[in-house]
Amino acid sequence: MPISPDQATEIAELRANTQPTLRATVPGMEAHLYTAHEVLDHGFIRVIDYMGDDSAICQAARVSYGRGTKSVQNDEGLIRYLMRHWHSTPFEMCEIKLHVKLPVFVARQWIRHRTANVNEYSARYSILDREFYIPAPEDLAAQSVVNNQGRGEALSGEEADRVLRYLKDDSTRAYDHYEEMISQDDQQGLARELARMNLPANIYTQWYWKVDLHNLFHFLRLRADSHAQYEIRVYADAICEVVKDWVPAAYGAFEDYRLGGAQLSGKALDCVRRMLAGEKVTQETSGMSKGEWREFEHLF
Ligand SMILES: Cc1cc2nc3c(=O)[nH]c(=O)nc-3n(C[C@H](O)[C@H](O)[C@H](O)COP(=O)(O)OP(=O)(O)OC[C@H]3O[C@@H](n4cnc5c(N)ncnc54)[C@H](O)[C@@H]3O)c2cc1C
């Protein structure tokens, strides 16, 4: 269960406790504050705090005294200009703090993004919950035959049943032993910091993750991408939905230039020019490697 009834009550209490402020607030973000958005079978993301809005980006870019806003249209144009020209520091003026509950193997990929502040639930101090990520049958995919780093069709039949059974049984058995080892009933009880080494990588952990908007966009560009593993991509997708409501103009520019756009090498650009001039360009005449050509063709 992503959120227990007690936690739901706590969140409702937090949301009922409103306070006036002089700081910039965003109605869409206020609606998200504290609320858990479920991801995978037991995970979630929830916004704990945020700073800044679209205007804050323009305000910083113009280093202005007031809100820095000209008109909404003007601001959107400036934000698109900043994004287009990789002028990143104004985006760093906005920050977001998320509470994330995620499987440990997803956390290992996530933590590679070093430009964030993290505080993780302590499994030395606390006891981890009996919660494991078990993929839905349609996500239980076979190894891809074309991409070593990917997956293919969903497993089926007896193999799917057996894999699912292994995942569930192994998780349950490991957790039973974990509980037994830390128990202090009629025994000393192994230290929690040691007992946890027996737990599988699909157990859930939690952390607070604070990041500025520039580095968040970098994270989202890599992890909301089709090349990212499904289990981290669904978190990135959930964060995208929140960011849309927080900084709609900045997100719009990010979606257009980064998620929807593509970067072309000098050779690729040359091919586009030659194609526009009516030349039939092939991989052999492109100057690109087979891999580059395949990716180039995929763009269109
Ligand atoms: C599809 C995919 C597959 C991957 N496969 C693998 C894999 O097989 N093995 C593996 O180990 N990793 C893998 N990664 C992780 C990847 O290599 C990066 O570590 C991860 O995406 C974090 O990116 P980053 O370093 O740009 O992000 P951040 O750590 O957030 O850094 C953001 C930017 O800040 C700068 N920066 C941050 N720290 C430093 C520093 N110490 N020195 C210089 N510049 C710095 C860099 O410009 C960097 O791009 C994969 C990632 C993806 C998206």
From TrEMBL:
It catalyses: dUMP + (6R)-5,10-methylene-5,6,7,8-tetrahydrofolate + NADPH + H(+) = dTMP + (6S)-5,6,7,8-tetrahydrofolate + NADP(+). Pathway: Pyrimidine metabolism; dTTP biosynthesis. Gene3D superfamilies: 3.30.1360.170. Binds 4 FAD per tetramer. Each FAD binding site is formed by three monomers. DUMP binds at Q109, W110, I111, R112, E120, Y121, S122, A123, R124, R196, R223. GO terms for biological process: dTMP biosynthetic process; dTTP biosynthetic process; methylation. InterPro entries: Thymidylate_synthase_ThyX, Thymidylate_synthase_ThyX_sf. Pfam families: Thy1. Keywords: FAD, Flavoprotein, Methyltransferase, NADP, Nucleotide biosynthesis, Transferase. The active site is at R223. Its EC number is 2.1.1.148. Its cofactor is FAD. FAD binds at T89, R112, H113, R114, E120, D212, L213, H214, H218. GO terms for molecular function: flavin adenine dinucleotide binding; NADPH binding; thymidylate synthase (FAD) activity; thymidylate synthase activity. It comes from the Bacteria. PANTHER family: FLAVIN-DEPENDENT THYMIDYLATE SYNTHASE. Catalyzes the reductive methylation of 2'-deoxyuridine-5'-monophosphate (dUMP) to 2'-deoxythymidine-5'-monophosphate (dTMP) while utilizing 5,10-methylenetetrahydrofolate (mTHF) as the methyl donor, and NADPH and FADH(2) as the reductant. Homotetramer. Belongs to the thymidylate synthase ThyX family. This is Flavin-dependent thymidylate synthase. It comes from Litoreibacter ponti.
